[in-house]
Design goal:
A 6-stranded mixed β-sheet has the order 8-7-6-9-11-10, sandwiched between helices. Strands 3-2-1-4-5 form a 5-stranded mixed β-sheet, sandwiched between helices. It is globular and about 80 Å long. Helix 7 crosses helix 11 (262-282) and helix 16 packs across helix 18. The chain is α/β, with parallel strands linked by helices. The longest helix has 24 residues, at 182-205. It contains 20 helices and 14 strands. A hairpin with a 3-residue loop joins strand 2 and strand 3.
């Protein structure tokens, strides 16, 4: 039976963390060791916009130590990921280069949506409790050092996710710069939090009924501390009492009473304020603390990729539901998008040996079909450019920044002449061209938005791709536009698309 030793390194905004796991199909993911060290990269980034050389030096020394520990465990693989502190730093490329040169460790900068998706996978790995709790209205709220992510579920589907700049370290630094008494500072922060949470409520909660909040992130680790020891499930009343105690105690007394390391106490009060306000506006009755960290999500993804574990939860479905909700927000034509989505997948699957793309690109094409006309909400005259801006400004959980850029460009070039000289790398340009060619011909097949091509068959013969339909309706409009779009398809694939009606139709 395959057993793998894997290490995850989290280069966070407030601390560096190394976690070593043993992963096997029989036992799942088991933690062997965890080492954490406060380093406060975010203090540099959020204050000055860059990470200082002294901080980089400290980080490299710590990562070298981590590398030695990984060698002792003889790990089969590792992944090191950085979050908002390095992501937002102006000198991030220099920092990553220094890490690579001095330690030999490659660090990936996670986009916000990738970071939250990994934490989401870590929660989903606790399958029994996770699947049970999300049957009722649920929100995952991760208050990290730099920002907060709120993701809403409708039964077992993730419907939307939004990022708010309400990280505990970021809030704490605002407190440090503010004058006045402790009461004045709490009032300032409360107003700061209320503004963002209330805006989220207005746009995304509306009539949603949220019964449970799943809390993750650096602050959530200590929210369950109390006289009864650590608790994973906290009622709204219990949490309110915990918050009142925190508010009235000094940092030293909080550390002593709740057995919280003193260096983390400064983050707990701001984090608790955020969770308290979120519970108030949602009316949530229960707070679940699954105790997961980013490293757990990194390990879960590794285990899934290596086929050491299998999730029952369908994460691709979450991504598609989130995309459909974005389309709904921008009043997309639901019936048109549905038939387009179906047809692009038929064509993609029918020419596999010609495009050489995989499941991930198939998913990106599907998302592009769902979002292809969202730009019309802004401008009917320039929908491609407007859709590009919407997609690049809207996070889709589980989709990286690079993948979002592919989707946005495919949607843009659906109506705009393709730019072979676009400032993208060669690999991206090729993928975008291949997906755009498919989207164009399939979109032409529903030019009238009357869904005439509900059941198509795709076959390739003698350098021609035949798309056959049983439709008995007049398809002259669609054939005319299809012929125009076929030129680019032939340019990309070397095969000519031909639209045919089945005999007798």
């Amino acid at each position: 039976m395959a057993v793998s030793i894997f290490a995850a390194i989290d280069v966070g905004s407030y601390e560096l963390e190394l976690t070593v796991y043993e992963i096997s199909p029989k036992r799942g993911i088991c933690q062997l060791d965890r080492i954490r060290k406060v380093i406060g990269l975010g203090r540099d980034t959020y204050d000055r916009g860059i990470i200082s050389y002294d901080r980089v030096d400290e980080m490299c020394k710590l990562l070298t130590r981590f590398k030695g520990i990984m060698n002792e465990y003889q790990v089969d693989g590792y992944r090191a990921c950085a979050t908002s502190a390095i992501r937002e730093a102006e000198n991030r490329e220099v920092v990553l280069d220094q890490i690579k040169v001095r330690t030999g460790i490659d660090v990936d900068i996670l986009s916000n949506s990738e970071q939250r998706f990994l934490c989401y996978k870590a929660i989903a790995a606790k399958e029994n409790e996770f699947n049970n709790i999300i049957q009722k209205g649920t929100a995952i709220a991760e208050v990290g050092s730099g920002s907060m992510q709120i993701s809403l579920f409708d039964k077992d589907a993730l419907v939307t996710t939004q990022n708010l700049r309400l990280g505990a370290l970021r809030i704490h630094q605002i407190l440090e710069r503010a004058g006045g008494t402790a009461v004045d500072k709490r009032q300032l922060i409360q107003e700061f939090i209320d503004n963002d949470i209330d805006t989220f409520r207005k746009f995304f909660l509306k009539d949603r009924n949220v019964k449970n909040i799943i809390a993750t992130g650096v602050c959530a680790m200590y929210l369950g501390r109390g006289s009864q020891g650590d608790k994973q499930h906290i009622t709204a009343e219990e949490f309110q009492k915990f918050y009142q105690d925190l508010r009235d105690l000094s940092e030293e007394r909080i550390a002593e009473k709740y057995d919280i390391p003193l260096e983390f106490v400064s983050l707990i009060v701001p984090g608790a304020m955020v969770y308290r306000r979120l519970m108030e506006v949602t009316g949530a009755e229960l707070l679940w603390l699954p105790g997961v960290r980013l490293g757990d999500g990194i390990a879960a993804e590794y285990a899934e990729q290596k086929k050491l574990i299998r999730f029952t939860h369908d994460f691709s479905r979450d991504i598609l539901v989130a995309a459909r909700n974005i389309a709904k927000r921008y009043m997309g034509d639901k019936e048109h998008s549905a038939i387009l989505e179906k047809n692009v997948l038929r064509v993609f699957d029918g020419i596999k040996k010609y495009h050489g793309l995989g499941k991930r690109e198939r998913l990106l094409l599907q998302i592009a079909a769902i979002l292809h006309d969202c730009g019309k909400y802004i401008s009917i005259r320039t929908p491609g450019e407007c859709a590009y801006n919407i997609i690049m400004s809207t996070e889709i959980i589980g989709v990286s920044h690079r993948e979002r850029e592919i989707i946005a460009n495919v949607v843009k070039y659906n109506t705009v002449p393709f730019d072979y000289q676009a400032s993208l790398d060669k690999e991206m340009r090729i993928v975008i061209a291949k997906l755009t060619a498919i989207l164009r011909v399939c979109n032409a097949m529903d030019r009238s938005h009357k869904q005439k091509f509900k059941d198509i068959r795709v076959s390739v013969k003698e350098q021609q791709m035949f798309i056959t339909t049983d439709s008995s309706e007049n398809i002259m409009l669609e054939q005319s536009l299809f012929t125009q779009k076929a030129d680019f398809f032939e340019e990309v694939y070397g095969i000519r698309p031909v639209l045919k009606k089945k005999k007798g139709a």
